[in-house]
Design goal:
about 0% strand, mainly alpha, 7 helices, elongated
């Protein structure tokens, strides 16, 4: 691989990292606003999750810049700190969502509508799959285990979007309010898992979501 090709690949990796930050921020703002307006806990929790993903994405962006500068794959202190903050945030989110879901079930709360949850989740799935595809291509071309691991672990965002989609679609079809709360519980469970993975990565342990999933 020529030096020019390598520079172009790192430029693409940098663009993908920055795009992930911007997309998650916008997705978070939209989801929080619509989730609060429609009183849908699953969409609101999804929005909070997106903001936490911003912190994680900033760590990945820093990682890409560092690898580009010295080809280092080991995480530095900035990335480890970002991962620890991400892990704690996911734990707090999971606990809050679980408690809120239990309260909503007890009160038999029903969202005004979950139509926006369907729209947001469908858009998110499309963008995330595209990001994963391009990150895998760049990671393979650069033979970077760190970039490939980031691509594989991004699948957690797809799973969250699928949960939101199923819960939102289920409520629209049946009108059963507890489906929104059930979706929030599943998002809480996935967020807890993401928190655990963040702490594992901060310790230098490869995240288990990557096993066998780096292929496209």
């Amino acid at each position: 691989m020529s030096a020019l090709e390598q520079r172009n690949l790192y430029a693409r990796a940098n663009f993908l990292a920055v795009f992930t930050i911007v997309y998650n921020f916008i997705e978070g703002v939209v989801s929080l606003w619509l989730g609060a307006a429609d009183e849908t806990l699953a969409l609101f929790g999804f929005g909070l999750d997106s903001f936490i993903e911003v912190v994680s994405a900033v760590g990945v962006w820093h990682m890409v810049k560092r690898i580009r500068a010295n080809n280092g794959e080991t995480r530095d202190e900035f990335e480890q700190r970002a991962l620890r903050i991400t892990g704690v945030s996911f734990y707090v989110l999971a606990s809050g969502l679980l408690l809120s879901a239990v309260v909503n079930i007890g009160r038999q709360h029903k969202p005004q509508t979950t139509m926006w949850g369907i729209v947001v989740s469908a858009v998110s799935i499309s963008f995330m799959w595209a990001l994963i595809h391009h990150k895998v291509k760049v990671g393979r071309a650069l033979n970077s285990a760190a970039i490939l691991a980031d691509a594989a672990c991004s699948r957690a965002c797809v799973y969250l979007s699928l949960v939101l989609l199923v819960a939102s679609l289920g409520y629209e079809l049946t009108g059963i309010g507890s489906l929104d709360a059930a979706g929030a519980m599943l998002i809480a469970w996935l967020s807890w898992r993401e928190g655990s993975e963040a702490f594992r990565k901060a310790k230098g342990i490869a995240c288990c979501c990557c096993a066998g999933e780096c292929g496209e």
